[in-house]
Amino acid sequence: MDEQWRCEDGRAAGPALTVGLRPAKRDCNMEERAKDRPSISIWCAKQMEVHSRISGQTFLAVAVSLVFMIPALFIGWLISVFAFYFIEIILFDDNPLNIIFDGLIRDMMLEAIPVFLQGIAAGMLVIFVCARILKNANYNVVAISIASIFIIMCISLILYILSGGVSNMGALRIIFNTAGIVIGLFSASAIVKAG
Question: Considering the domain boundaries, does residue 49 fall inside one?
Fold first, then answer.
């Protein structure tokens, strides 16, 4: 480990760096190395330029996603209307569970599933639209940012609803809508990342 590499002229090149069990060879002539490859400062400058472009597009993608979330929630609402009528007519017309629990499961399903589907549709739509506009953004960061904003809004609204004594169905809808948005955001960002 204390072995030193020697250059051709006999001077010590400094302590050897170890990679696994073999010491890694150290460069003796930095001028020749600089001719073969671009300098580190040029490489760092290029990397900083790429990073700043990606981080700038990521910040812009978060802002665009927040703006596009309103029309995406409206489109998701249209999907939830169809889901509501499908659930009401097909699944709970004369369902034995509905009769046993006196309509409680029907009410919970009619409140939860449509807004959950609305959230999934809105989250996925926002990421897909932004991915078409801003191709170099990091959509994992976008999904985390948008999801954290909606989770904070969800917690705030639930605390407000529960402190006001309003029915718990409103809190249930907010929870399922937020869960759908988060699932939609992260699944769409994984699809965009995969390619």
Answer: no
